[in-house]
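Protein Entry — a single chain follows
Fields — amino acid sequence, structure tokens
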Amino acid sequence: MGTKPDFYISIDEAGNPNDGKPFVISAVLIEDLDSFLKAYDISLMEAKMLMERSIKYFKWSEDSPKPFKLGKNVKGIFVDKVLSSLRGISIIVDNKGEKMSEYSTFLYGKIPGLKLREYVRGRKIFMYYDRSPILRGADRELIRINFPKWTLATIVGIDFTGHDRSKLIHPADYVSGIVREFITKDEFKREYRQFLQTY
């Protein structure tokens, strides 16, 4: 039987690192995995009642309301039932045309690690990353080696194979989506900006 983590940490990003707009990387701490999964399943049931159809998982870019097609407030269910009880950090990268892959260990490893230190110092953590095209094998290895030093935590495991259907990825997917759209909110219609303000 493996060591049980004190925290699961979900890491995901929003935006395209090469489109000239802000790129956001977020890390969200899940302290009680069972409570998180229960809240997630309750949220899915509420979303099903609201939409009158099943959804399998939550994803910021797919759930309504959307910037130019409002629809029913599925995002609000996930924010209220799941995100409201979690803590996290976001890193906003204002890329001025530089190649992001040059800084991937720094952006996905060192900065989040140092920022998370105040929450996880001396604790056992499991890192769960969404698959990132700019994280190469050497970057992953550097993160794996150095994360204990950056966080001052015991690393139970680091998984770089997360995907859109994984429940553990969705908190960071949502936080990075909210932050990115909030800082570009002037592009959106007033009604959608009000949703962002609430989230």
Remarks:
- The chain has one domain: 7-198.
- The chain has a mean pLDDT of 91.
- The chain has six helices and five strands.
- Residues 56 and 131 are 20 Å apart (CA to CA).
